[in-house]
Amino acid sequence: FWLQGAADKDRPWEDYGNDLVALFEGFRADLGDESLPIIDTGSTGNHQPRTAKAYAASKVNGCNVVVASMPLGTQNADGGDDGDPGPQEAIHTRGWVHWYLGQRCNGGAVANCGGVNFSNHPVYEFYGYDPALNDPDYSDLKPPDATDKIFRWFKDFPSNTHFEYEADILQGKTLANTFIDSFTDDTLTNGWIGDDIQIQFPYPSCDPAINEGKPSAENFCWMDLRDESALADVTCSEFERRKMTSFDGMDANQLNNGGAGRKTRTNAFAVLAGMILAMMLLVNYA
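Given the sequence above, the corresponding structure tokens read:
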């Protein structure tokens, strides 16, 4: 599980994407498994790193890389750091023009873009808003008649938007679900599906026929900045993923394509989600 990207949000997607390819292939070489399953996430609300991750998943040797998202917000392609439209540079992608900002608001753990980028309000209506948004200074970031439900998303909004424990738990569940759904033949339970932010609130790439291929408050999507040659150079398909026969056979101490132990799917899910959560808590609270 690779949870990173915010520090690379200002880099061209080609550079970050090629670094991800080298990183993943290096991991696999060190571990002696050329198609080790990888779930990649982080800063997916910014179009440069989200494009880089899609590129890496499409190019890495051995394939078997899936990009997961926590679709809380998406970058406004027409808004600068001050909320005003920034200078625009035309990027031709898939035969249409994407407008990419020279001065945009790049959201990250210590860079809040509330009021500039687009928030996924249906997500917050479903789970609840961070308690910081009850502060009069930030309450205008909520829509009129917003739900009163509270969900602890951020450590210290707006200065530190690393995930707080409720969001960490939610992300851990989503990453575990992504692994099970992508790399095993097991079926997610209705309960897991119902609480999976990525399943309940899909985050597609922008349709070029809608809003000039850009996101908006009503068109929540990410901009794929790859040009036609990069898209034509794809070597990996989601149908080529190596899958385990079942998650039932995975032992808690052998989370690989084997495992001698026998556990129920529920216990295996709990172990996997717990391990992911522990990793995220170590990062956020160390």
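Confidence is low (pLDDT under 50) at residues 81-104, 106-112, 251-264. Try to locate this feature in the token string yourself.
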